[in-house]
């Protein structure tokens, strides 16, 4: 039976939540402004460590610095998240998405603590890299290809995304790496290949 977008309600709800939050925030201020975003749940290490505001590890995943940042992440989330949710199931998908996002933020926080350079950060890309990491493992388990998505294609996307991040300014590379590794590990722990069934994946993209 062919899968459709209706088979990935979690991806749709998460994407919708990100869009709704963004447009609500734009009615009250500038989403490109770090102070404004900080007042609405963005990550900032001193507030977390000294103020105990650990909720920022979660809320920051629904905030984006500007419309372009939002669109880039949501396009990739819908294309790749849909595929992963269809393949692995709703509950496991949610575990991978949110756990990877939080792990990515924790690694980012650790990096800030090591360097002593604290910046305001936000975005869903750590969680999305977790989706990519899990998809990479699923592709490996399915002999390198699932429908229109190949393991090599996903790996190439990872390399390009990380290269772009490390050669550009204002990108939280540690959150991307933390999310990617967490997603792959969680994929190993949570995914079991369904015997006698071929997986159906559609679409690809890359994250920045």
Describe this structure in words.
With 208 residues, this protein is mainly α. The protein has one domain: Rhomboid-like (Rhomboid-like fold). It is built from nine helices and two strands, in the order αααααααββαα. The chain has helices at 9-26, 34-38, 45-49, 56-59, 67-88, 90-115, 125-141, 151-166, 173-190; strands at residues 145-146, 149-150. Strands 1-2 form a two-stranded antiparallel ribbon. Helix 7 packs parallel to helix 9. The termini are far apart.
**Spatial extent as radius of gyration:** 17 Å
Tell me the total number of β-strands: 2
CATH level 1 name: Mainly Alpha
Q: How much strand?
A: under 5%
N-to-C SSE string, H for helix and E for strand: HHHHHHHEEHH
Tally of individual helices: 9
Mean pLDDT: 85
Morphology? globular
Low-confidence stretches: 196-208
The helix-and-strand class reads mainly alpha
What number of domains? 1
The spatial strand order of the largest sheet comes to 1-2
CATH topology: Rhomboid-like fold
List keywords for this structure.
single chain; 208 residues; 9 helices; 2 strands; 63% helix; disordered C terminus; membrane; Rhomboid-like_sf; transmembrane; Rhomboid family intramembrane serine protease
